Amino acid sequence: MGQKHAGYDAQGNIVAYYDSVDSPVPQGVNAIELTDAEWLACISTPGYKVQDGDLVEPLPPTAAQLVAAAKAAQIVSVTEACGAAIVAGFQSSALGAMRTYPSSLIDQQNLSASVLASLLPGLASGWVTPFWCADAAGLWSYADHTAAQIQQVGQDGKAAIVGAIQKKAELVAAIEAAVTIAAVQAITWSSP
């Protein structure tokens, strides 16, 4: 390992790091020498710049920037939780008793195909389709569903998805309205 360098652009933004032994500074590149401590600081803390030939530490984030970063992180968390809720399954009493239905993306596609098939003209009066679900005891099986039953399952599945999306929208609105980091972080998927 040799002497460390930071390459920078016309605005002083650091764009590359070089080592005199492993990766020398290419000809024509603006670069300054760095101590090992400066190099470690630069690679561990984004925002260092070069100004008038000197390495300049980034300014600490403002309170507004910290709140904005907390909001962005919390929105990602809520969005991920919403996605997980959508594929976690849902309940329907289409067969007369409450059952749990799967809702992974493939399960949603299979349900959509079953509902679509149930709407085709000319169905025999005894038309049924098997669909995977769990009873109250948690036992999973393929249970036959009539056209009306599979359509009800489709409606209940759609309602569960819409409910999750509405919850996410409400939480994102609350996050956006929050003014402190603590208030932002208090808004989670499990929030009422």
Question: Any overview of this molecule?
Answer:
- This protein is of the alpha+beta class and 192 residues long.
- The chain has helices at residues 36-44, 63-86, 105-118, 147-177, 181-185, and strands at residues 4-8, 14-19, 31-34, 49-51, 54-56, 90-92, 99-101, 128-134, 140-146.
- A three-stranded antiparallel sheet has the order 2-1-3. It has a two-stranded antiparallel sheet with strand order 4-5.
- Helix 2 (63-86) runs antiparallel to helix 4.
- The mean pLDDT is 95.
Task: Write a short abstract of this structure.
The protein has 192 residues and is an alpha+beta fold. It contains 5 helices and 9 strands.
Main pleated-sheet profile:
3 strands, antiparallel
- Spell out the helices and strands N to C: EEEHEEHEEHEEHH
* Computed Rg: 28 Å
Structural class: alpha+beta
Major sheet strand order: 2-1-3
Instruction: Report the helical percentage.
Output: 40-55%
- What's the overall geometry? elongated
**Number of helical regions:** 5
Poorly predicted ranges (pLDDT <50, ≥5 residues)?
none
